[in-house]
Amino acid sequence: MSLLNKLTFLKDPSGKSYLNWFSIWFLLYPFDAYVLPVSIGFMTIYPHLILTFLLLVWSFFIDKKASLPFHLKSAIGYYILLASIGLVSIFFVAGKNDAIYAARSLIMLAATVSLILLSYAVLGREAFFDRVFQLSTIVFIFFCAAAWFEFYTGIHFESPHTNKLLLLPASNVTYAPTFLYQNPNTFLCYIFSSALIMILCSKKLQNSLLMLLPIIAHLMIFSIAADSQLGKLASAVMFVFFGLMSIRKGFIANYKLHVIALLSMVILLLIVASENPIFYGPIWKKGKDYLLNSILVIKETENKNEIEFQSSSELVEKYGKEKIIDLYYEYQSHGKAPSSQVRKNLFLNGIYLIKKHPIVGVGAGQYSWLSAHGELPYDTGTVISPHESVVEFTSQYGIPMLLLNFVLMGMTFLFILKSQKNKFRFAFFWAFIVAISWVVAAMPSAWLVLNCGWILMALILVSPQLHTENRVD
Question: For the chain, first and last CA: distance in Å?
């Protein structure tokens, strides 16, 4: 009896067993290596990692209910090529440890994208998108519940970030959710990614402004809490875009809904654009008046053996509000450059590397290694990761790989134009989601190592299949 015959139990004709294990795998991704990790020396293994490769192997044995079009087969080949380049680069770079970590991430990226695309083929269009929508909704609700708990209590899971909060005065970031991750920006990546996956996998959600409003509202609230300019921008633009997209033939019949949505959009934009954040309320600690009230001056008495507190109001009258605030912010930042200047320098360092190594890049993980070792021209303080996905990608893997990525996205866009009934509307919608995902990818220090990004990349590529009929080759 051949090995293939011995493994017939893997074929799972109904697909139910595969679907159940796929669901467990998906629900585990927010926890990544935090659930039952076991170190084996050179790496850590954990259930989500094991399930990724077990399901990937399993997917080859099951009869497919849908075929993969050429652009999806090309996507699998592209990410395998990218992982191979990352592995090869380890032998030619100085920062071996950084390269190994980045190469492992690329392997997981290739495995995750391949698993998502092959799972679509195994489960078929309807079962795949229905289940991913359900699972991503569960994940989004879980993130929101955890975020509200942190926001209202100020209680966080212990991490290097939360330990730093002990050294800072209470502010809006004190209440910003982090969940298991290193900082609020990483949490925002996860909650934005889960929201975008929900939208990509549901026709009803794509066409219902009322269903989208609470999702976008949560993204906006937690972006404000984290003081993330990119998060606030992304959620506000999403609100405007989906509001405009909802204006279609049924506008007259549903004019009340659209009037409410329009007024809500205007009010939200006015609040976000307000130059006086004091109106957010004292818990946000954003207004200068609230900040001034929180400052107390401690000074020694004349006999040097006692101290007393003095209100900042006396100093404000003497020196002026603006000067006090500027000096306070300078003290808080410990003399570091503003975050906008740091991000600019990170970008310029990436451009510097791209110019020096335009074809093959500097190698996996080498942007951070070179930055940490003072090999880059622009000062970024203690920040060593690129904070921008395109620069991160191109500086390390070269312009040709970036162009191939653009070709892959272009192939997907052309597939939409050739196969969709409402092709222009969905093509516009799809392009917008790609643009928003690029904004989200700029939030964390390094995008390519986050598994929420791997899943989002795969869903962006396969999402056009939601609007096509299943085909079996």
Answer: 28
* Domain end call among 276, 311, 332: 332
Buried b (16+ CB within 10 A) or exposed e, 321-334: eeebeeebeeeeee
125 falls within a domain = no
Is residue 391 one of the residues assigned to a domain?
yes
Lowest mean pLDDT among 287-301, 356-370, 389-403: 287-301
Q: What is the DSSP letter of 76?
A: H
387 and 344 belong to one structural domain: yes
> How many domains would you assign to the chain?
2
Model's pTM, two decimal places? 0.84
309, with CB counted inside 10 A (0-12, 13-18, 19+), is exposed
> In whole angstroms, what separates CA 31 from the centre of its chain?
15
Distance CA 370, CA 353 (A): 10
CA 455 to chain centre: 10
Let me know whether 327 and 350 are in one domain. no
Q: Are residues 362 and 414 in the same domain?
A: yes
Give residue-wise pLDDT tens across range 195-238: 999 999 999 888 888 889 999 999 999 998 888 889 999 999 99
In the structure encoding, which two tokens stand for residue 394, read together? 């191109």
Cα 346 to chain center, whole Å? 19
Q: Which domain holds residue 368?
A: 339-444
